């Protein structure tokens, strides 16, 4: 099995949120709290010694995804051929009937429910529809700073290095998120 993963160059990201907007537009997600791709600003220091970094947070498609194990309905699964974690929204019983264990299980808050009654769980699926057509995920295509790349995680780690942490991100070995970084270090 090839495990697909994500590379994020934290030194290039300027926090423009283009990846978030493109994702919402591509997936036809209404304005509001659901963001399959999230960008967080991390700030520290006091003037004049300030530091800021951004962290792109989609689903990290873990090798051992806690959300798959937590879903009581079996609505979340890991594809055997590429390791992408997907949601069967027809199987999901929705926010009104679900104990929301997937939300509690994911340390990176990838699973999300919309605010509407009966909302079904949704999360980043690496744009599997686009990948199957030989295209990059929409967040990768939209990023004006070329800070994102998606591909087999072993190839990404060979190309960019095996940096498993970045500012604002904590790597958890037991879940083995399929991600590598070029971290931005505080000076």
Low-confidence stretches: none
How much is the radius of gyration in Å? 16 Å
Q: Supply the number of structural domains.
A: 1
Using DSSP, what is the number of strands? 7
**Approximate helicity band:** 10-25%
Helix run count: 6
Shape: globular
The CATH class, by name, is Alpha Beta
Return the CATH topology. Answer: Alpha-Beta Plaits
The end-to-end span amounts to 40 Å
Biggest sheet features: 3 strands, mixed
The CATH architecture designation is 2-Layer Sandwich
Strand fraction band? Answer: 15-25%
* Average pLDDT score: 96
Structural class: alpha+beta
Strand order of the largest sheet: 6-1-7
Element order, helices and strands? EHEEHEEHHHEHE
Description:
- With 187 residues, this protein is an alpha+beta fold.
- The protein has a single domain (4-182), classed as Alpha-Beta Plaits, CATH 3.30.70.
- 20% of the residues lie in helices and 21% in strands.
- The protein has 6 helices and 7 strands, in the order βαββαββαααβαβ.
- The strands form 3 sheets. Strands 6-1-7 form a 3-stranded mixed β-sheet. Strands 2-3 form a two-stranded antiparallel ribbon. The chain has a two-stranded antiparallel sheet with strand order 4-5.
- Strand 4 (76-78) and strand 5 (85-87) form a beta hairpin.
- The radius of gyration is 16 Å and the shape is globular.
- The termini are far apart.
Question: What secondary-structure arrangement, pairings included, does this model have?
Answer:
Elements: E1 4-9, H1 18-26, E2 38-46, E3 49-57, H2 66-70, E4 76-78, E5 85-87, H3 101-105, H4 128-132, H5 138-142, E6 148-152, H6 153-160, E7 179-182
Parallel strand pairs: 1-7
Antiparallel strand pairs: 1-6, 2-3, 4-5
